[in-house]
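Annotated sample (chain length 355).
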Amino acid sequence: MRILYGIQGTGNGHISRARMLARHFSNSNIEVTYLLSGRSRDKFFDMDAFGDFICLRGLTFYSENGRVNYPKTAIKNNIFRFAADMLALDVSAYDLIISDFEPISAWAGKLRGVKVIGLGHQYAFGHNIPRAGANLIASNVMRFFAPASFPLGLHWHHFGNPILPPIIDTDIKRVGSTAKDAAIATNKKSIVIYLPFENQQSVQALVSPLKDFQFTIYSPELKDEDHGHIALRKTSLHGFKRDLESSQGVICNSGFELISECLYLGLPVLSKPQGGQMEQLSNAEALKTLAYATTTNQLDTLNIQQWLNNLSTPIILRFPDVAKRVVEWLSTGQQETASELSQTLWAQVEKTKEK
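Output written by the structure step:
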């Protein structure tokens, strides 16, 4: 079987999911070609899992100071280049296409009658799940941006729908058996911050007065520097994973993948959704509904301090290796329905609360 796997490259969460699938594809009878769009090739990092991948411009959203800038998004996206790349993409050699909200591969498959399996968080929005910030533009983006003939959405709960659990690296482990053990290993409680859509100088200013904690701030635009209790780090796969595993809490936007990893590790989360972005606003709403994290629409030093003073693990969700099961499902001809696959995987989720 030959598969074209399209991955939206504007967010690292899409790529993280794809790495887990690529690990299992490499041990299967499936030949996979990876296509990434939404970011220039030189902006990707740690891409060995995808071999000689195809990189196209695609479509992306532009943000400023924590909010989607829709006028800039409209101006900077080149719809003619997108159409040309989509029409030039030859999908005739593939048995099916997987799209993690990647529009070029999804539209090429749709127009040429190739089955497109939509595998990603955004495809959960085709079901009745918690929503916030919905408007005509956002709803149509979710519907038409990367259409799939067989959508398989991912979420932190199924909400009574054929939605799959998150795809994460199930090898990640918390340093120490409990948050207390992890804290003993350091002089200060270590907090990871990942707010790539925010102004990074403003993020540093927010936590500068909170000297009882050690903050590690990650962002693609930063350089590796240490400033007392604040460490600045350029986004990287292994460094971020190491710091996440040894942290006692995470401050982040309301992206899906990182919070999924935090739930798996049992890490407390303070989450601020990206303004004007329906997916993140809806994720924050789901976190509140499920009582899985603390959410806020505005970060300031006071609410960060209050959250830090009450660090606790709301829930631990031990997700199964969803990537492995999906690759097995693909290898055996997709005989199970989405509902059957969903029920099988959710039956393996272990939900506990750390005491």
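Annotation: The CA atoms of residues 176 and 182 lie 5 Å apart.
Annotation: Confidence is low (pLDDT under 50) at residues 177-186.
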